[in-house]
Protein: Pre-rrna-processing tsr2
Organism: Pyrrhoderma noxium
Amino acid sequence: MAQSPNSLVLFARGVIARLACWPALRLAVDQSWGGPDSSSKQTWISSVIVDEFDKPEDSELPDEFYIEDMLLQIMADEFDTILEDGSAEAVGKDIVKLWSDLKDGRGEGAVKVWEEKARSSSSRTVLSQEVKDPDSEQDSTSDEDEGSESDGVPQLLSPSMHKSHEEPEVDSEGFTLVKGKTRHR
């Protein structure tokens, strides 16, 4: 159902706010997984979704599954990210519900709720967990590859494991004693 320009603008505001609350997209944009223009891709995604709903009245409107699939495809294509957390499903449901609320005259309230959530979530940091696909690893007979299970992942050292920085030793005449590095074998 084609909507008036005002209701489309309201829907676009709601979609932008809902996507701003989506942790997966926020992380992808914050970490520039889509390259230097990652933030403009977020706006582009919003416009693609709004365009799907701005169709002639005789056209079939997208459902939550279509929006979910579209979001998953965009995340894979534009941000090289495969989502398996189910968050795209929730976003798809929310966007379709937002459209339904808009048609029922409750759109402005729903948009304000999402805009408030977007404002409050913009200050929170999103954490990620990288999961390696076991099917993508290649078998190798090299001795180098038989190391620890976490090759390539930097390990954090606890503060007690850091070498303590020794104060320079100054003799009675004011000269600083230079110590050579000792090699531990």
User: Anything to note?
Assistant: The mean pLDDT is 79. DSSP finds six helices and two strands in the chain.
